[in-house]
Every structure is written in C-alpha cells, then in structure tokens.
Amino acid sequence: MDPLEHASIPSLVYLSLSSEPTIAGLTALVLGAVFPDLDALAEEHRSYLHSLLPFLPALLLGLNLGGPFLLFALGWGSHLFLDFFTGVVPVAYPLSRRGWGLSIIVTGPRNFRVELRLIERYPDRKHDYRLEIGGSFALALLAILTAIIRLH
Ligand SMILES: [Zn+2]
User: Where are the membrane-spanning stretches (predicted)?
Assistant: First the structure.
C-alpha cells in the first residue's frame, strides 16, 4: 500500500466520523499514518515501525494524552491495519522477523469464489520499487476535497 492510500483512508474516516474535525487533528493523523514507512530507510521496509513493540506504548501514551497524540497513534494503527491486508506485519520485530497478514482473493464471475487465507511469513526484503499511484491519487483528491468541505 502506498503513502497516498495510507494517508487518505484514515483521513476519510476521521473527516466522516469526527463531529468537529480540525486541521491539527487531521495533520497528526496523516503524519501517524505515513510514519511507519520511514522503515524504508532501514534494512527492511516492514520492520521496526511496523512492529507492535513500539506501537503499543505509543498507543497507550496517545490514550493517556489524547488530542493530536491519540490521532497520531490511531494513524499509526491504521497503517498497520491496512498493511495486514497487503502483505505481512512483523508484530514482534526485531525479536522476530515473522509476520502475519490476511490474503483475500475473489475469483469470478464464473465459479465465483472468495478465498481468505492467513499468511505467515517473513516480510519481503527491501528493494527498489515502482508505484502505480493512479487509483491512490484519485483517493487522495477525494480526501482533500472532503477536508476542504469539512474543515472550513
Ligand atoms: Zn507499511
């Protein structure tokens, strides 16, 4: 999942569910939502910041402090949630590199079938990649439009 999707999806949820969304709250949420991909600077893409070991204390701190700290932690949590469906999340990194994710495959229209499969493997090693962000860009524009409407 690319950074535009990671930023847009929780933003749309926040802008839809919050009775009084703020630009500061949205900013904290988006920063938290893209923050774990700083792992791309480490040896492995999904590593330290994709682990529950730093996330859970950050969530507890956010629950304690509230406001933008909580929104940052919720953004971070949304990143891990979304990555769970697009690969694996190494929940105990660096103690273990083993990760878990959920694969959902839909086939059809003939012999329509939905296949759910729990994945357990190690995250892919870091590699150069090329992102096709057309769909993500449309989603980001929708989030920006929604923010303009809800934040003015
Ligand atoms: Zn990620």
Answer: 12-35, 55-76, 131-151
- How far, in Å, are 5, 10, 35 from residue 147 at the CA level? 15, 12, 20
The Cβ of residue 139 has, within 10 Å, a number of other Cβ atoms equal to 19
Q: What is the DSSP string of 67-88?
A: HHHHHHHHHHHHHHHHHHTSS-
Domain ranges of the chain: 3-151
Ligand 1 center from residue 109 Cα (angstroms): 31
Distance CA 100, CA 35 (A): 20
**Beta-carbon neighbours within 5 Å of ion ligand 1:** 37, 83
Q: What is the pLDDT of residues 79-113, one digit of tens each?
A: 999 999 998 999 999 999 999 999 999 998 888 99
Distance of CA 118 to the CA centre of its chain: 18
Contact predicate 105/119, CB 8 Å: no
